[in-house]
Amino acid sequence: MAAPRDIDTLLKGWEFQPGEVSARLVKARNGREVLQMRVDMGMLQMEADLRPDGGHPHGAETYFDYLVGEAIRTGESFRLTREQCAEADREFVQFYHRRICWLSLHEYRRAAKDADHSLAFMDFVRLHSPDEEWTLSHEQYRPFVLFHRVQATALATLEESGPVSAIQEINAGLGKFKELFARYDASEQYSDDELVRRLESMRESVRERYEVGRTIEEQLADAVHAENYELAASLRDRMLHLPTGEKMSPPATPADAIDAPPETPPEGGSDATESSLSKPPRRRDG
Question: How many other CB atoms are there within 10 angstroms of residue 282's CB atom?
């Protein structure tokens, strides 16, 4: 009797929930971990490491790695072809699906790693894009990927090192958002941006839940802004003499105590939280 070829057994008891990311990490027959994501009328299965589809494009670990090699061989004149653009888009979508699965499973370091891949790939295609329209079609997603990266890293740090370090990670991420807005001459939109506000809200939730005051770095920034240079010098001296361990808090309670569900950027749909840079203007030269 032939083995069944349907996936009824796999889907039994695992209902699709619209608007939710439903994922699970399971063992394949050969013992490797695979990630499964429930979708309408079925599921996606992804590898847990390297490229989600398990492929090795042109023998490389990812298509990004392959393109980097091509750019090195070709030199400064390298530009992506239409076919390469299409393959790059496939890899962006694959890493997006796996990233939101890692977030839903609270696998924050793995989510951050996949976000780093996408951000580095975005940097690459911006340099080697065949035209500005295609460049902007990817740059509009950068705030969402960056948001995921900051969110995941902060939650991982909260679990590993405590709330003070998590707040520092969020502040560092907000600094990257400021740089991004400045690159597109949109600094005036920074404070009102929805993703920025969500990160600020996350930071204050951590501060309130764990009863953490302003970090020494935040106190220093406040002193410099107020032109209280004597206090700023005192804080700098204090930072230099603090052992690393004293700048951090003891490990916190599980990160899921903070309300930070995964966002769904328009890499996979149009129901995302909007960013002011969803359709960025022309980048400032230099």
Answer: 9
pLDDT digits (tens, 9 = 90+) for 41-85: 999 999 999 999 999 999 999 999 999 999 999 999 999 999 999
Give me the residue label for tokens 């790939």.
121
pLDDT digits (tens, 9 = 90+) for 129-161: 999 999 999 999 999 999 999 999 999 999 999
Helix 82-104 to helix 108-128 angle (10° resolution) is 160
Domain boundaries, the chain: 28-139
- pTM for this entry: 0.82
Cα 279 to Cα 139: distance, rounded to the nearest angstrom: 8
Residues 27, 24: Cα–Cα separation, whole Å: 10
| Burial classification of residue 89, based on how many CB atoms lie within 10 Å of its CB (0-12 exposed, 13-18 middle, 19 or more buried) | middle
Question: Are 155 and 199 spatial neighbours (Cβ–Cβ below 8 Å)?
Answer: no
